Amino acid sequence: MTEITAFWIAIYIAMLAAFTGYVTISRVPAILHTPLMSGSNFIHGIVLVGAMVALGLANTPTEQVIGFIAVVLGAANVTGGYVVTERILQMFDRSGKKPRKGA
Amino acid sequence: MADFSFAIEPVYIATIFFFIVGLQRMSNPLTARSGIVWAGAAMLIATLVTFFTPNLTNIGLIAIAIVIGGGFGYIPAKRVAMTNMPQMVALFNGMGGGAAAGIAAVALLGPTTPTSSLAVVGGLIGAVSFSGSLIAFLKLQGWMPSRPITFTGQQIVNMAVLVLAIVSGAFVILQPASLPLSVNASLPLFFILALGFGLLMTLPIGGADMPVVISMYNAFTGLAVALDGFSFVTPNYAMIIAGVIVGAAGALLTLKMAKAMNRSLTNVFFGAFGATEEQAAQVSGSVKAIEADDVAVLLAYADRVIIVPGYGMAVAQAQQKVQELTDLLERRGVRVKFAIHPVAGRMPGHMNVLLAEAGVAYDHLFDRDEVNPEFPSTDVVLVIGANDVVNPAAHRQGSPLFGMPILDVEQAKNVIVLKRGQGKGFAGIENDLFYRDNTRMLYGDAQETVGKLVQALKKL
Hints:
Chain A contains 4 helices and no strands. By secondary structure, chain A is mainly alpha-helical. The longest helix of chain A has 30 residues, at about 60-90. By secondary structure, chain B is of the alpha/beta class. Chain B folds into 2 domains: about 80-270, no CATH class; about 290-460, TPP-binding domain (Rossmann fold, 3-Layer(aba) Sandwich), CATH 3.40.50. The longest helix of chain B has 26 residues, at about 115-140. The relative contact order of chain B is 0.09. The chains are: A mainly alpha, B alpha/beta.
């Protein structure tokens, strides 16, 4: 497959992904907006794998420095995003600490 | 090390599958918690398998960077109080944007390819998201004044910076021989201008609009990640798909929020909220204070009570006391509801999260549209640290708030406003509500005041 074909396939995929994101969010109740925003913040932490490849294939010191910073930032996005989302969602857990009447 | 590079694509496919399942589960209160666990597990295996990328060097550096970044994310996220979560989302979103900008920079340092223009756009969006999110973080954290920061000719300056950033981005790709600008010169210039634009774009936005802005930058980062996915020799489909999903979902969420505030996105980003200061608002009447004991009596003998929580409740950490108050009142047969304005607090759903933390059941929480018709038949409305979302000025033409859908609390028989002092709301606008005949002000720290109400109720 040529590079150009791969490019267009990626565009097709991106279009379908856009619909997936749209449909997933469109049915969400307002109370989950904050956790969902935080959750999607975690999911774009996939930038970490790109940063790892960018640093791993870096040749010059400049590329290494920028790549290193990118991995640090990406890793912070991933762990921070996960912990924040987890903590927010913990509060929605009704089976846990305090079961409430009429819930 | 054994060669597991064959596993990369299958694992990435599984990662995307679990991301989508995770998001799906996060859209339902009952399954939400497992959703993040699924997504988290997927992220972990994706990270591990990436170490087997062919020809990968600097593996030690990568590991060190992950440990540093991971600690930098983990520690504050664990320690910060629940009320400060919105700015943490802004902060970590900025980190992701910065990482995306870095990947684009590395790609652009190499030879120009057909996808370089995508890297330029990705770099631009990522850098804007980075600096913009950091400003949003500083404003929400209170390390920077949250009021809109404006100066004359600001929009012209902003536009000029954006245009210059795009032009320098074009120079990076085209490297015109007629100009003595090498990649080494135009690339840093491009990123400085892009970062500058994100900063300038966020400065004039007031704290009241921050939820929309954070959501917007969240979508930006997603888009930047997706564009970066193209910049590798073989496209990184995991980045493209995950990035586009976040971009689309974030954009929709942003529009939903802006709609709830009845503000167009152009207005949010270029309107400088509150800059069109109302010509000496004609507020007649006076503000009348009340004591906690009197409020307790009022509440105890009411049939229907609606509580309107706002950011003030979050700051004072009063949600636990509010929950106690609710329990006491319900035991006396008072029907208590919570009216949640979509943008109360600093993020959509912020109040829901805090009240859920305190143990208030979901079926007590009502949206603006559900609860607004009920105010005229309500005996007492308790406004706890909310201001702009209950300001009837939104119904008056000429007010900067005009058109924003609000909770019509002024229609209730009695309105008690719990407030720390006599300051204005986040939008910096005088609140007509406080001057109404049926409004009484209960001054003091929300946690203390609600605590006093609880004590007084117990004695009754």
